[in-house]
Amino acid sequence: MEWGKLISTKRLGIDNRKVSDYDKRTAFESDKDRILFSSSFRRLSKKTQVHPFSKNDHVHTRLTHSLEVAQVGKSLGKTLATHIKDKLPYKISENDIGSIVQAACLAHDIGNPPFGHAGEEAISHWFKSGGIGDQLNQIKEDRVNDLKLFEGNAQGIRILTQLENHLFKGGLRLTFTTLATFLKYPWLSSAVQGNDKFGVFLSEQKILEEIANTLGLIKKGDNKWCRHPLAFLSEAADDICYATIDLEDAVELKIIPYIQAEKLLLSIFEKAVCKELRNNLEDKDSYRVNFSRLRGPVFDKLIKEAIESFLQNEYKIMNGELEENLFSVLPDDNPCRKLIAEAKKIGHENIYTETFKSEIELGCFSTLECLLEAFCRAAVERYNHIQNEKESVVSWKSNLVLRHLGNHAPTKKNHPPDQLWDKYLCIRRVIDYVSGMTDDYASRFSSQIRGILVR
Percent of the chain beyond pLDDT 70? Predict the structure, then answer.
């Protein structure tokens, strides 16, 4: 791959960017702003990061997490650019690379459903357990598998390129480079086995191909391409924030002791630096102040190591050969690699299994099953009625449900403009609607459907 082709200001859905005389932003700064002001991004403020329905205002939501990841991503992008500036296209600056990674990081969780990863599992579980009955028998097998594996990353690229702002006409119309930097898994659901991660639903296959062909991403197999090099930085920014912020939230909620988190964060520094940092800390009861003082040095160290890892593996990255993340390819004894690994281990063993969190996640299965049952059946009824008006009738209840679906509901018009509605696309649009809900709205709406009236 070549940086000259990988960094492009060309946008999805339009040939040229019309810029007013007063707009002095670069194309990539504009990408960042389009994401920041989108309604899908705004709704992240009411979506679970790790701890659903937390009453503690210091705990992160998807929105605050995304903003923090974006700032780390900006630093990673600008730092890398200083090392590879001679390889970058003419007029592409350090700030441009920083803005590209920042924009991708802002959007990295934009496709997550209500209740976080539990919501992903709940949506998949409903389809796997035959929630819509024999209707799935009328959909092609590869598309059925697409429905049974809901993936927030794939929903994210669908939002950015199809749903937000310009419906089925380019979405937010971002640059191809920002979209590729967002794509952590640039392959289709049909290119993976079992529950492996993927980044694109079959409904966005043509868009993935256009991104890959425009930027010259290396093809790795059927419907699978290598990552854009800057996507490694987006992933590293997320890892850095997970390693620190999840620990911070766990201490705030008294899931793990502060001393455990402090010891782990300081483990990446040499003894002299560690002693100096400790001298700057308050007592353990002032953990919020201490995290504020530790966060900067920890981020600086992790950013430095991530960039070193990128540069050491640059040949593999540019040839599409690197499969792992930047921290996992550091030497085994590297303290930053150990920190990321240990933080993830604590998350899986202590934080993500916390009792209250587990109770809420169990409830989210019932919530999403209720919503999917109501909306999928209504959408399919409407579809059947459109196909055969004489033999199929839409029930009064389904018509009530369809009012809420709005432009997500099936119509006689083509969908997208160049494609006829089918049952797969009907259900895809229901998933768009339900997965876009906030935790609060999903919970309240499902209660209303069950007859538990809430105002």
Answer: 91
Helix/strand/coil for 219:
strand
**If DSSP codes are grouped into helix, strand and coil, which group holds residue 379?**
helix
pLDDT attached to residue 22: 65
Determine the pLDDT at residue 37. 95
The verdict on whether omega for the bond into residue 416 sits within 30 degrees of 0, i.e. cis, is: yes
215, 180 Cβ separation under 8 angstroms: yes
Q: How far apart are CA 127 and CA 151, in angstroms?
A: 13
CA-to-CA distance for 20 and 254, rounded, in angstroms? 51
pLDDT of residue 56: 63
CATH C-level class of 3-14+26-113+145-225:
mainly alpha
Name 252's bridge partners.
Answer: none
Close Cβ partners of 241 (under 8 Å, ≥ 6 residues apart): 65, 68, 69, 72
Asked if residues 151 and 198 have their Cβ atoms less than 8 Å apart, the reply is yes
- Contact between 105 and 44 (Cβ < 8 Å): no
CA gap 290, 280 in Å, rounded: 8
Identify any residues that bridge with 216 across adjacent strands, giving them in sequence order: none
DSSP letter (8 states) at residue 161 = I
Amino acid 50 reads V
Break the chain into its structural domains and give their ranges. Answer: 3-14+26-113+145-225, 233-351, 355-450
Q: Each residue of 67-113: pLDDT tens digit?
A: 999 999 999 999 999 999 999 998 899 999 999 999 999 999 999 99
Contact indicator for 446, 366 with CB cutoff of 8 Å: yes
Which pLDDT score is estimated for 406? 82
Q: How far apart are CA 283 and CA 215, in angstroms?
A: 52
